[in-house]
Amino acid sequence: MRLYATLTFVAFILHLVWERSHIVLYTGYEAMEGALPVYLLATLGDVAYTLGAVLFVSFFTGCLTWFIRVRPQSYFGLAFMGLAIALFVEFKAMALGRWAYTDAMPMIGLVGLSPLIQMTALLPLSVFIASLVERRLQGTLRP
Q1: Nearest to 131 by CA among 53, 75, 56
Q2: In whole angstroms, what is the distance from residue 133 CA to residue 126 CA?
Q3: Rounded-to-integer distance, Cα 67 and Cα 11, Å
């Protein structure tokens, strides 16, 4: 489905830029290095979480294309889901010793601010941009 391909592409680009520019705020991730740079692995995970959140909402709405015409207040729900995902990922990673934060990471309690902002902002932004692109391709959005 083109809509999900667009969402995947948009989320990939946004998260890749974020991960690449914020990798300096982390340490201890070197053990995760492999065939792919760790920021690329993190980006793929971010895209998976984005698609998972959208599909989760699709399950409850009964419509896979619900986000083509999402209402403005729905972006707050997506932002909240992004925050919940970020908290889950960060606490899990800390518990498993996957990575730690450098002194440069701004903190909110025990969690870094950067990943919280990332998922809270980029999940709804990815959906917003993908919906704009899709409506433009369908001809229902005027230039």
Answers
A1: 75
A2: 11
A3: 14
The span from the CA of 130 to the CA of 10, in Å, is 7
**Residue 36 pLDDT class (50, 70, 90 cuts):** confident
Q: What is the pLDDT of residues 118-142, one digit of tens each?
A: 999 999 999 999 999 998 988 876 5
- DSSP class per residue in 3-37: HHHHHHHHHHHHHHHHHHHHGGGEESGGGG-SSS-
Q: Rounded to an integer, what distance in angstroms lies between the CA atom of residue 30 and that of residue 94?
A: 15
Task: Report the 3 state secondary structure along 78-128.
Answer: HHHHHHHHHHHHHHHHHHHCCCEECCCCCEECCEEHHHHHHHHHHHHHHHH
